[in-house]
Design brief:
- The complex is a heterodimer of chains A (280) and B (464).
- By secondary structure, chain A is an all-alpha fold.
- Chain A contains 8 helices and no strands.
- Chain A folds into 2 domains: 129 residues; 144 residues.
- In chain A, α1 packs antiparallel against α2, α6 packs antiparallel against α7 and α7 packs antiparallel against α8.
- Chain A is globular and about 55 Å long.
- Chain B contains 10 helices and 20 strands.
- Chain B is α+β, with helices and mostly antiparallel strands.
- The longest helix of chain B has 29 residues.
- In chain B, the strands form 4 sheets. In chain B, strands 4, 5, 6, 7, 8, 9, 10, 11 and 18 form a 9-stranded antiparallel sheet that branches. In chain B, strands 1-20-19-3-2 form a 5-stranded antiparallel sheet.
- Classes of the chains: A mainly alpha (280), B alpha+beta (464).
- At the A-B interface, α6 and α7 of A face α3, α9 and α10 of B.
Chain lengths: 280, 464
């Protein structure tokens, strides 16, 4: 890729971050003022950010012929894109506006980390062209974003429940939606996120088989991913079979996301795995 | 009649036959949740403690008491530990028993003798929407019927004097989704088990031009015989300017009953499959070098001579210097504790019968000068012969695994994105000539999206 295009894409990413920041400011304002109009504009900025972000990713992929997920910065940028996209999707599906108060700052945070992540140029890496590998990466990121939102809804649930239990009609009580809606959103996000994670793991196994000769090689990241998957499977059984709802479920969702976050970042940083090549 | 409460309780438990209690234990969702979380939590241990290392390593790392504790718990090979395998077995038994246990009930729901609906029960549902319409009863009923039959597979109706209830439903079969997911997990485990028992993973090194019919099994260090012969015709390698390998490929033939049945190039990430056995290009090396061209400098006459020969061959040195024999090529040569790398080894036999060894390291061309002999030997040019390293895998469980993947994807999609939905629209003639319409609905999953759907339907029906 010529430096000209790389520079342009970098500029575009700064613009995208700017849009996300405007969206975040809108959502924070919405938290205080509770005006639907403010939320609508914040969502609009989020949508614009998502669109330009997607364009930048598509352009970069077209010019390099590979999915840009080779460095920590690139991976984080895709994570931010997945998060903003998932938020917009669930915002429409569940009508939970307040989730933007968590989703937009998180998007900005990841984007900032992506832009300031140290660059490790000059390293030869296998280009990500294989269809299974591309689907693996995309699906896992979408799944992780959905589960991040599930965690967000879980946190809001706990705040709201505390307010109701303490009979304190405080700042959050008036601003948060009903426990039912929060719980529903959380479960919707978990089901979607879990399914995407499942699809992503399956495509990952297929890629591993085609490239390395085995589906499974006891790599720490593989083990952590499947362990996290099993945990979410347990959570789904709690919800769908044992009828756990609300608080217990919300707490488990938060624990699950912590495990997921460690699988995404922690394993590479503290344990090491064959996924290393993508985040150096 | 005077039994205490506690007695009654133990009584009822004792009354239940043992097999029933065992069945219930294995069919419970609680067991599934506990086992899933236990497997998830314990499998992490193996990523924190290095697996299958030497005892001394663990002893140094953890100290005596922790070393003993971890040893008792089998933490050094935990994925094969009895307790870990027990957890997996528990999961499998739980999966099978609980699926059988619930399938009966689900089967009756999916294939009912007769589909019916209860108006009163629908009216008690949370998800409801009512509106009034000024249209005539006769006009509206066929229109609603048509609208609903477009959206739902099964349509039923119940008439009374002043009202009609139309019932629609779809997606009964989606209740199978969960069983599909469970079956997929069994298939994955069966596939993995078959692969572990009947499959193998090994390695073979083939020199250019050579063939072999057995594979070295990596784990047990034993040989696995193949029922065909594999031959490496040629091996090609391209290098970057930096000297790092860019691409390497082996041209491979499969020979069966002394007949070549297949011939193909294999490169990294593009394996050859034959009779279920995969040959992956994994590494390469220089097996020997041939046709060495020597440069021979005579110290006395300052003349430079050239000669080309193969390993094992010899020739008479000029100026009556004796006989030079090229013994062999070595991938590495150890000289006083230093590895000189690829080297040729030769021998000179002087006319007086004295013999001495000549070392010609490729990396250090002037090495032989240090010998201060009558002749200086230099390796000028040689032809390398490579060997190709192939990773050989055989996994007869792979079809089960792929079947498992397909069912897993289908099952997850059905379970989480589809549902068994039923609705009822009741149209009642009111006294003031208006019609009151009530739409109620339910779904076995994602009730909230059912609510949105009912609201949307109410909007559309009101416009008809």
């Amino acid at each position: 890729m010529t430096t000209q295009i790389a520079d342009n894409i970098n500029m575009l990413l700064y613009f995208v971050t700017f849009l996300y920041i405007v969206s975040m400011s809108g959502y924070i304002l919405y938290l205080f003022k509770q005006k639907d109009k403010i939320e609508k504009s914040a969502l609009l900025f989020m949508g614009a950010g998502f669109l330009f972000h997607l364009i930048s990713l598509a352009t970069q992929s077209l010019f390099t012929g590979t999915l840009p997920a080779h460095t920590m910065g690139e991976s984080l940028s895709i994570a931010a894109l997945a998060l903003s996209g998932s938020f917009i999707f669930f915002r429409y599906r569940s009508k939970l506006k307040i989730l933007g108060v968590l989703a937009s700052p998180l998007t900005v945070l990841i984007m900032a980390a992506a832009l300031f992540a140290p660059e490790t140029a000059g390293k030869e890496i296998t280009a990500i062209r294989n269809i299974w590998l591309v689907s693996h990466i995309s699906l896992i990121f979408i799944g992780e974003a959905a589960l991040a939102l599930a965690c967000g809804a879980g946190i809001l649930y706990l705040i709201q429940e505390k307010g109701i239990k303490g009979k304190k009609t405080g700042f959050f009580f008036r601003r948060l939606p009903s426990l039912d809606l929060l719980d529903y959103t959380s479960s919707l996000c978990i089901m979607t996120g879990f399914t995407m994670l499942t699809f992503g793991l399956v495509t990952g196994f297929i890629y591993a088989k085609s490239a390395w000769g085995n589906f499974w090689s006891w790599d720490p990241k593989e083990i952590w991913s499947v362990a996290t998957w099993l945990f979410y499977a347990a959570l789904l059984h709690c919800r769908l079979v044992s009828g756990w709802q609300g608080k217990k479920s919300a707490i488990m969702t938060i624990i699950g996301f912590a495990a997921l976050l460690f699988t995404f970042l922690g394993v590479n940083l503290f344990i090491g795995s064959h996924h290393q090549i993508f985040t150096n | 009649m005077t039994k205490t409460k506690q007695n009654k309780k133990t009584d009822s438990k004792a009354n239940a036959p043992f097999y029933k209690l065992t069945w219930d234990f294995f069919a419970s969702a609680k067991l599934a949740i506990i086992v899933l979380i236990l497997i998830a939590a314990t499998s992490i241990v193996g990523t924190l403690i290095p697996q299958n290392a030497a005892d001394s390593f663990y002893f140094h790392k953890y100290g005596e008491s922790l070393y003993k504790l971890f040893s008792v718990l089998d933490f050094y090979d935990m994925y094969h530990a009895w307790w870990f395998l027990l957890l997996l077995c528990l999961l499998v038994i739980n999966l099978i028993v609980c699926s059988i246990d619930r399938l009966d009930k689900t089967w009756k729901i999916i294939f009912p003798k007769k589909i019916s609906f209860n108006i009163e029960r629908f009216k008690k549902l949370k998800i409801q929407k009512t509106f009034t319409s000024k249209n005539s009863f006769e006009k509206i009923v066929p229109e609603y019927r048509q609208y609903l039959s477009k959206q739902f597979k099964t349509i039923l109706e119940k008439n009374s004097d002043n009202s009609i209830a139309i019932y629609g439903e779809k997606g009964r079969w989606t209740r199978f989704g969960v069983y599909v997911v469970h079956l997929s997990i069994l298939l994955l485990l069966v596939g993995a088990l078959i692969g572990a028992i009947f499959g193998f993973k090994g390695h073979m090194n083939l020199n250019e031009g050579e063939s072999a019919d057995s594979v070295m099994i990596s784990k047990q260090k034993t040989e696995q015989k193949l029922d065909f012969t594999i031959k490496c015709n040629t091996f090609d390698i391209k290098f970057y300017d930096t000297g790092a390998p860019e691409e390497y490929k082996s041209n491979i033939s499969i020979i069966e009953n002394e007949k070549e049945v297949l011939k193909r190039d294999i490169i990294v990430n593009d394996p050859l499959r034959y009779k279920g056995i995969n040959f992956f290009q994994s590494n390469y090396g220089v097996s020997s070098a041939d046709s060495l061209t020597l440069e021979i400098e005579s110290k006395s006459s300052k003349m430079v001579y050239h000669h080309t020969l193969k390993a094992g061959q010899s020739f008479d040195l000029p100026e009556n210097g004796g006989k030079f024999t090229l013994i062999r090529y070595l991938p590495q040569f150890d000289f006083k504790g230093h590895n000189l790398g690829e080297s040729f080894i030769g021998k000179v036999k002087k006319p007086d019968g004295k013999e001495f060894m000549i070392v010609l390291p490729i990396r250090f061309p002037t090495f032989d000068r240090m010998r201060h002999g009558e002749f200086v030997f230099l390796a000028e040019h040689y032809e390398k012969k490579y060997y190709t390293g192939l990773q050989v895998t055989y996994d007869p469980g792979v079809l089960y695994v792929y079947a498992g993947f397909i069912l897993m994807i289908a099952g997850c999609f059905i379970t989480f994105f589809m549902s068994h939905q039923s609705i009822m629209v009741e149209i009642t003639k009111e006294k003031n000539d208006e019609l009151s319409v009530c739409i109620c609905g339910k779904a076995n999953r994602n009730n909230q999206s059912m609510k949105l759907k009912i609201e949307k339907m109410a909007g559309q029906l009101a416009k008809l």
